[in-house]
């Protein structure tokens, strides 16, 4: 049996699709929705339509604070941390929980299925390359979710005040201790335009810079991006790779500029993907 935590900040347009994918799953013990700083009717929707869920209505708009508050209600392990604008495939909770019983997998995630059908051409090219990178494909990255075993959670006591909670969690584990689980999927809607893509990727890079500066990562990992991308430049993937590199350069510049004022950072959120659920 597993506990599921869904942090939610103004997610009224998408949260029902997320929760509908969770409530009837085998292996679900406790469902906690940690509404935080909401100015819409997210909490009302949860309480009205999902009485089986524990609905927290937290005044502070902070994802990591919401996670810390929600963890007080954990009843079973592993714990699934699922973003409110995603959906899990049927039986994903059971499949992942069973896979983690080997005791070797301390951090897991479903395999990401990113829907780019409504995205612009440049966004599609970016994801075309990004999703082929080995580190992204199987390293508990790009899933908007993660699953921690009870033994794994002993690596830290509380979520620190950081931008990138999933990055913080991931870098507490060695490569052999974490993996994506075949047979379990999470459906994610990609940003529809380039501006929104740059926003969320800048936030991720900024969060990683913050983690590195604070020395919060215990397990560093080298990513052979340069070699892989150089090889693709001399293949049929040349145009998508050039687009990817150009977008990545913009992200790096924006993140470096924003890092100078990281203490007053205002969370950048993609609103374009929140009108429909990701397609299976």
Sheet with the most strands: spatial strand order = 3-2-1-4-7-6-8-5
| CATH homologous superfamily classification | Spore Coat Polysaccharide Biosynthesis Protein SpsA, Chain A
Which CATH architecture? Answer: Alpha-Beta Complex
Supply Rg: 18 Å
Briefly note the CATH topology name: Spore Coat Polysaccharide Biosynthesis Protein SpsA, Chain A
Proportion of residues in extended strands: 15-25%
Q: What is the overall number of helices?
A: 10
Give the CATH class: Alpha Beta
Helix content: 25-40%
Q: What are the low-pLDDT stretches, counting only 5+ consecutive residues below 50?
A: 276-280
Which sheet architecture does the biggest sheet show? 8 strands, mixed
Outline: globular
**Beta-strand segment tally:** 8
Pfam families: Glycos_transf_2
Keywords: Cell membrane, Glycosyltransferase, Membrane, Transferase
Main location: membrane
Protein name: Glycosyl transferase family 2
Give an overview in words:
This is Glycosyl transferase family 2. GO terms for molecular function: glycosyltransferase activity. InterPro entries: Glyco_trans_2-like (IPR001173), Nucleotide-diphossugar_trans (IPR029044). It is found in: Cell membrane. Keywords: Cell membrane, Glycosyltransferase, Membrane, Transferase. It is a single chain. The chain is α/β, with parallel strands linked by helices. The chain has one domain: Spore Coat Polysaccharide Biosynthesis Protein SpsA, Chain A (Alpha-Beta Complex). 37% of the residues lie in helices and 19% in strands. It contains ten helices and eight strands. Strands 3-2-1-4-7-6-8-5 form an eight-stranded mixed sheet, with helices on both faces. Helix 1 links the parallel strand 1 and strand 2. The two termini are 25 Å apart. The C terminus is likely disordered.
């Amino acid at each position: 049996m597993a506990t599921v935590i869904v942090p939610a900040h103004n997610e009224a347009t998408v949260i029902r699709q997320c929760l509908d994918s969770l409530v009837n799953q085998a292996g679900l013990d406790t469902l906690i929705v940690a509404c935080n700083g909401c100015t819409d009717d997210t909490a009302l929707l949860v309480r009205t339509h999902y009485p089986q869920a524990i609905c927290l209505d937290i005044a502070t708009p902070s994802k990591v604070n919401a996670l810390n508050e929600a963890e007080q209600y954990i009843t079973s392990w592993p714990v699934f941390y699922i973003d409110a604008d995603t959906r899990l495939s049927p039986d994903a909770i059971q499949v992942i929980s069973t896979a983690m019983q080997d005791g070797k997998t301390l951090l897991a995630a479903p395999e990401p299925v990113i829907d780019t059908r409504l995205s612009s051409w440049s966004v599609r090219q970016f994801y075309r390359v990004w999703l082929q990178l080995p580190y992204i494909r199987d390293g508990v990255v790009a899933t908007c979710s993660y699953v921690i075993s009870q033994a794994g959670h002993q690596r830290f006591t509380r979520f620190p005040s950081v931008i990138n909670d999933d990055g913080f969690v991931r870098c507490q584990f060695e490569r052999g201790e974490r993996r994506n689980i075949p047979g379990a999927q999470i459906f994610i809607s990609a940003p529809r335009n380039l501006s929104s893509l740059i926003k969320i990727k800048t936030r991720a890079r900024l969060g990683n810079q913050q983690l590195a500066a604070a020395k919060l990562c215990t397990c560093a990992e080298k990513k052979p991006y340069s070699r892989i991308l150089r090889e693709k430049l001399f293949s049929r993937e040349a145009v998508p790779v050039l687009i990817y590199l150009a977008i990545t350069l913009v992200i790096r510049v924006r993140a470096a500029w924003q890092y100078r004022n990281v203490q007053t950072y205002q969370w950048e959120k993609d609103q374009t993907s929140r009108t429909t659920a990701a397609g299976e």
